[in-house]
């Protein structure tokens, strides 16, 4: 696993760690089941505070990219169908909420397109 943190870049260091691990997991550079370094180990190798790496790991775990198995460590989680199922559930929750708010289908779709555009350009 290779990560490069640019302190002078606009993104916060924890976000850089999160984004790079997520991309490497998505691309297969980090295969499913790959054991990640400990929070302290990665923080030390990157010259970051342990809390910074811990925050990135928490975000990755919330996104389903990694999973923590207690004292056994932190591993790249299975993606693909599981990630698609989670996205489908989130989309369903959004659709119900948009309907309750009185949005038309076109308005709800436009909001999603804008949110996706903003997220993928970040």
Fold topology:
Blueprint: H1 13-27, E1 35-36, H2 39-46, H3 50-62, E2 66-68, E3 74-76, H4 81-100, H5 105-121
Antiparallel strand pairs: 1-3, 2-3
Helix pairs in contact: 1-3, 2-3
Notable characteristics:
three-stranded antiparallel beta sheet, 5 helices, 3 strands, about 120 residues, mainly alpha
What does this structure look like?
By secondary structure, the chain is mainly alpha-helical. The protein is 60% helix and 7% strand. It has five helices and three strands. The protein has a three-stranded antiparallel beta sheet with strand order 1-3-2. α1 packs across α3 and α2 packs across α3. The mean pLDDT is 89.
**How many helix segments?**
5
- Low-confidence spans: pLDDT under 50, at least 5 residues? none
Percent of residues in beta strands? 5-15%
Mean pLDDT: 89
Q: What class, by secondary structure content? A: mainly alpha
The biggest sheet amounts to: 3 strands, antiparallel
Reading the helices and strands in chain order gives HEHHEEHH
What is the global morphology? Answer: globular
Number of strands: 3
Strand order of the largest sheet: 1-3-2
Determine the fraction of residues in helical runs and give it as a percent range: 55-70%
Radius of gyration from the CA trace? 17 Å
Between the first and last Cα atoms, what is the distance in angstroms? 22 Å
């Amino acid at each position: 696993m290779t990560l490069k943190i640019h302190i002078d870049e606009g993104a916060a260091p924890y976000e850089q760690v999160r984004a790079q691990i997520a991309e490497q997991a998505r691309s297969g550079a980090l295969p499913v089941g790959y054991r990640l370094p400990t929070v302290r180990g990665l923080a030390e190798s990157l010259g970051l505070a342990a809390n910074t790496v811990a925050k990135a790991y928490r975000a990755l775990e919330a996104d389903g990219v990694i999973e923590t198995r207690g004292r056994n460590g932190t591993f790249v989680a299975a993606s693909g169908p599981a990630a698609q199922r989670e996205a489908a559930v989130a989309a369903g929750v959004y659709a119900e909420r948009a309907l309750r708010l009185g949005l038309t289908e076109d308005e709800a779709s436009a909001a999603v397109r804008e949110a996706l555009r903003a997220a993928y350009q970040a």
